[in-house]
Amino acid sequence: MLGHLARRLGRMQQISNGLKLFSEEPHRHLQTSLETIRPLSMVSLWPFSSQPRDFSQPNSSWSPEMHKAYDHYNALCDTDTENGEEKRGPWRKLPSYNRSIKYATGGIHLSKLIQAKARLFTRNVKEQGATFEYMVFVNKEEKRCVCVFQAGHLLEGAPGHVHGGAIATMIDTVTGTLAGFLSGPVMTANLNIDYRSPMPLGSVVLIHSALDRIERRKTYITCKVTSTDESKLYTEATAAGLQPN
Amino acid sequence: MLGHLARRLGRMQQISNGLKLFSEEPHRHLQTSLETIRPLSMVSLWPFSSQPRDFSQPNSSWSPEMHKAYDHYNALCDTDTENGEEKRGPWRKLPSYNRSIKYATGGIHLSKLIQAKARLFTRNVKEQGATFEYMVFVNKEEKRCVCVFQAGHLLEGAPGHVHGGAIATMIDTVTGTLAGFLSGPVMTANLNIDYRSPMPLGSVVLIHSALDRIERRKTYITCKVTSTDESKLYTEATAAGLQPN
């Protein structure tokens, strides 16, 4: 698959005069540059620049509450130094880009994948703070993750409140991220969402996801959306992710 | 509520020099212009111009398949003329704006509602064809509706395919529209979605929703998403809408 993708990208490089592909290494052979990168990540395959924007980094649209929640979980990702030895904790912050190229499986997807205009739904608006501001922290040992999410003014459903579809989008994203982290690439097979309380626009919430069970090709995840102090429950959900054959 | 809203809008008019409110009637008293409009609709309350854009109208981003499906259902909305008498059929096309002000209930919502920047989630991107292109046809007699939906390139989830959250968003929108049409304003209480087949970006699909039952304050809706010839099933879902107290 990698070789196929590299050839495609190579052809794209030849035909797209206006775009700068792998701009920091313009003379290096593309196949080689792809092969030397471990693990395969979107950073390496990003076709428009060598350093795509990581949307999960703090920006000026974040409220103090968002910063506080971010700082709390980010601190859990620090490495501990014991007896002169570095020990990495179980928490890890995942980067977030506006394409999901790392899940490319080639074949019929590939021509769509190369469509330069396609963008990840949750990262498709450039204005910071307008839609989905979020980052995901995963804990591999405990098989769970937490997403800190700030809901922007372009996510309106009922007046002044976040659209049920925007909440579903974040639940799909976070449960899919955890299922993918634990089981490899999955497609969402089922989402069952109970909306317990309307969420005002501008809210900062935590989306907690945990592994329920894995049965054959299906990974079952539970999810709840709460206020950052966890005192208020906004939404509860279950999700099932299916590994493709 | 109306008077309160009018006062708010009046104050907004005073403080926002850059915006033209009710531009076709600049010298008319705002309270009067609001009172003369029946029924209360978003058209009348739209604060930025007297004629907001109806996003459900055909535009140049629509594919031939989208136009064909639109034409099919639009023809069902025509009035029949029998014995010199006009008879309106059961189908009706609903307009679609980028605020849902018509459901304003005042009180705590109002300050949020006046936030000039908030936009309906499904209509928040200006570029035609980039995200959600859709319109909804309702049939009151049969208590059902059909939405024609074209999925734009900014709705990506898995490479080349529509994000599960974008599909959930349309299901929430269409089932909520039908529940609201039959029972008055509702908030989504539950969405249960089975994703049967991945939907490629650019697809045109039909979202069929029908009333299942109404129990006290809850309106239950069934939903399925199919290809326009209805031969392929993409998604099945149920939704429950709750009428606020």
UniProtKB/TrEMBL annotation, chains A, B:
Its EC number is 3.1.2.2. GO terms for cellular component: mitochondrial inner membrane; mitochondrial intermembrane space; ruffle membrane. The keyword Zinc does not apply. It catalyses: tetradecanoyl-CoA + H2O = tetradecanoate + CoA + H(+); (9Z)-octadecenoyl-CoA + H2O = (9Z)-octadecenoate + CoA + H(+); octanoyl-CoA + H2O = octanoate + CoA + H(+); hexadecanoyl-CoA + H2O = hexadecanoate + CoA + H(+). The keyword Transcription does not apply. It is a peripheral membrane protein. It is an enzyme of class 3 (hydrolase). Residues 160-231 form the Thioesterase domain. Keywords: Apoptosis, Cell membrane, Cell projection, Cytoplasm, Fatty acid metabolism, Hydrolase, Lipid metabolism, Membrane, Mitochondrion, Mitochondrion inner membrane, Transit peptide. GO terms for biological process: apoptotic process; fatty acid metabolic process. One of its GO terms (molecular function) is hydrolase activity. It is found in: Cell projection, Ruffle membrane; Cytoplasm; Mitochondrion inner membrane; Mitochondrion intermembrane space. Belongs to the THEM4/THEM5 thioesterase family. This is Acyl-coenzyme A thioesterase THEM4. It comes from Sinocyclocheilus anshuiensis.
